[in-house]
Write a structure and sequence with these properties.
about 40% helix, alpha+beta, 4 strands, four-stranded antiparallel β-sheet
Amino acid sequence: MQNYEMMVIFTPVLSEEDFKAAQKKYVDFIKANGGDIVNENPWGLKSLAYPIQKKTTGIYWVLEYLAPSDINEKLKIQLLRDEQVLRHMVIKLDKYAVEYNARKRSGVKTAVDKAVEA
């Protein structure tokens, strides 16, 4: 099992219920294929750096999960088929990224946070 982080940008026209249903669909997909959810973080509506499909905003969602490596190709197919998804990105986390994310979730200040405060 590997650690992965997925960021999805959904179309901004989704209602709150539709957004939650889309999140649940992908969480259920990962769990059904032998994965385990570590953390979910819905960022909400944010401006895009450039227009995508004539839209200047999108609803961001970040998901950290543990899964076998073969799940990502199946997940990619599902994301590409979904018309609600504007963009997506899945990255494999190394041990340092996993540790950093765990510290961020627990509220411990990281070196980046300390540098920003200074």
